[in-house]
Amino acid sequence: MAKQSQHHGRSWYVLHTYSGYEDNVAYNLKQRIESMDMQDLIFDVIVPKEKKIKIKSGKRVTVEERIYPGYVLVDMIVTDASWYVVRNTPNVTGFIGLGTTPTP
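The structure assignment produced for this chain is given below.
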């Protein structure tokens, strides 16, 4: 069960996930938000990325790299319902916070 911290209302929270599954988690969570009609509690899901130029086979290639591997950012209001939707998304291992309380 979600124990809401002292911060009430909308905040950004950090989800921990298996490294390499960040985009998959973000996609699945967005689908769950839509199918479970949670748009009024979960507002945005992002995987922070940056573009970098790398040299492959002697050519410059622009690639997107995750800034925080293993983490997904979620803009939400924590309630029991929103906690359930996020926590039970495949490959989500938990929230970053103290014990079982997510910290914005």
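Interim note for the steering committee: The helical segments are 22-35, 80-87. The chain is about 20% helix and 40% strand.
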